[in-house]
Amino acid sequence: MYIKIDYGFIDLKNRSWSGAISTLEKIEEAGKEDELMELLEEVFEYEIPTDTEVNDFLWFEDEYIFEQLDIKDEEDEEEDEDEVEE
Fold first, then answer.
1. Could you give the CA distance from residue 64 to residue 18 in angstroms, rounded to a whole number?
2. Which of 13, 58, 76, 85 allows an S-S link to 20, with CB 3.0 to 4.6 Å?
3. Would you state the pLDDT for residue 38?
4. Which pLDDT score is estimated for 59?
5. Closest-CA residue to 66 (of 76, 79, 52)
6. Which segments of the chain have a pLDDT < 50?
């Protein structure tokens, strides 16, 4: 059976598991939920992904996602602070 579902960030967060949840939490903290949904539409433009494919993308491609959404992790922020201090 094939079902196409249109859902938003909260739906995505409720249907995710494992490492994808921490990725989504960081995106939510940065206030970039809408930008993530736009990125997902671009990434999966030519296919309708399964829940597992979306979850795995969020989980294993978090560095790419954060880069695209201009979200820095704590290490990046510390490096930026060190460069300013020098």
1. 18
2. 58
3. 98
4. 98
5. 76
6. none
Q: Can you give the residue ranges of every domain in the chain? A: 9-85
Q: Residue 53 corresponds to which tokens in the numbers above?
A: 């494919």
* Token pair in block for residue 78: 């510390």
In the block, tokens 């795995």 appear at: 56
Helices 51-60/19-30 angle, 10° precision: 70
Burial letters 5-35, b for 16+ CB under 10 A, else e: eeeebeebbeebeeebeebbebbeeeebbeb
Q: How far is CA 12 from CA 17, 21, 58, 78, in A?
A: 10, 9, 10, 30
Query: Structure pTM?
Result: 0.84
C-alpha distances in Å from residue 61, one per residue of 52, 83, 84: 13, 27, 29
